[in-house]
Amino acid sequence: MNYFELFNLPQGFDIDAAALAETYRELQRAVHPDKFAAASEQEKLLAVSRTAMVNDGFQTLKDPVRRAEHLLALKGVDIRHETQTVRDTGFLMQQMEWREALEDLAQARDPHREIDALYRSFSAFQTDVSARLRQLLQSDTEQDWHTAANEVRKLKFMAKLHQELERAEDNLLD
Amino acid sequence: MAYSEKVIDHYENPRNVGSFDKNDPSVVTGMVGAPACGDVMKLQLKINDAGIIEDAKFKTYGCGSAIASSSLVTEWVKGKSIEEAAAIKNTDIAEELALPPVKIHCSILAEDAIKAALEEYKHKQAK
């Protein structure tokens, strides 16, 4: 299923969020179960699966990481998050350092300043990765798509770090 | 999700946590990460001139299964030759810890950490 086609959007990493939301509402209305109250069981089932597809399409296109994964899947590149490990030592060292910084927050003299600094570092790193990803996804060569898959994997790590930082922040407020 | 007793034991009393001096020539380091959950694992092996792993240490940021997998691996590799250590499979780790299917990637991570460390060893030997 090509979700870009489903939502009538140009296939690319950058997306018109307003158009996506607008089409989502239209599609939702068209497949709403209430419309099928008098329909046959088969039509009802079809409407339910259409609704699930529309919802999944919206969630996929809305989130940049999932959108990039979908773009790569359409090009025939499987990310294989479950089995493919990352071996980029420099990147992993940086991940370790950030995890250590998160651990040290509880003992920091001014944790809120540290938290702000971490948010800034994370977002600067994510901006860099996203810029490279955007370029790579525009390429026509398979090698670039595999490099793009590596950038997507990095964004997955960053998403996890963000969660951990938010949790650390919540703990400090308690 | 219910963790097995072995996972809980390794998680609560992890073996061989820490680091060796990375400037020690007998120490090699394997760094790997699992994108599925953002886990990061560092495994260090101290390998003597006879090619026997004398000691191992790890540092892992991740879930209980990832920590248990790395802790178990440090116990398993000690005293093994590099060939024996290279033969450790993720399925052995998953079986020993009774990992559920959704946590298999933790055992893959631990296997790949051994491989990464041994690759660095071969790289060093070649010099």
TrEMBL record, chain A:
Entry-linked InterPro entries: DnaJ_domain (IPR001623), HscB (IPR004640), HscB_C_sf (IPR036386), HscB_oligo_C (IPR009073), J_dom_sf (IPR036869)
Keywords: Chaperone
Pfam families: HSCB_C
Annotated J domain residues: 2-74
Extent of the signal sequence: none
Family in the record: Belongs to the HscB family.
Record's function text: Co-chaperone involved in the maturation of iron-sulfur cluster-containing proteins. Seems to help targeting proteins to be folded toward HscA.
Subunit structure: Interacts with HscA and stimulates its ATPase activity.
Name of this protein: Co-chaperone protein HscB homolog
Source organism: Shewanella jiangmenensis
Lineage of source species: Bacteria, Pseudomonadati, Pseudomonadota, Gammaproteobacteria, Alteromonadales
Gene label: hscB
From TrEMBL, chain B:
All copies of domain NIF system FeS cluster assembly NifU N-terminal, residue ranges: 2-126
GO molecular function: iron ion binding; iron-sulfur cluster binding
Gene3D superfamilies: 3.90.1010.10
Classification via SUPFAM superfamilies: SufE/NifU
Protein's GO biological process: iron-sulfur cluster assembly
InterPro entries reported for this sequence: ISCU (IPR011339), NIF_FeS_clus_asmbl_NifU_N (IPR002871)
Pfam families in the record: NifU_N (PF01592)
Cellular component aspect of the GO annotation: cytoplasm
Record's function text: A scaffold on which IscS assembles Fe-S clusters. It is likely that Fe-S cluster coordination is flexible as the role of this complex is to build and then hand off Fe-S clusters.
Family stated for the protein in its record: Belongs to the NifU family.
Protein's recorded name: Iron-sulfur cluster assembly scaffold protein IscU
Organism name: Shewanella amazonensis (strain ATCC BAA-1098 / SB2B)
UniProt lineage: Bacteria, Pseudomonadati, Pseudomonadota, Gammaproteobacteria, Alteromonadales
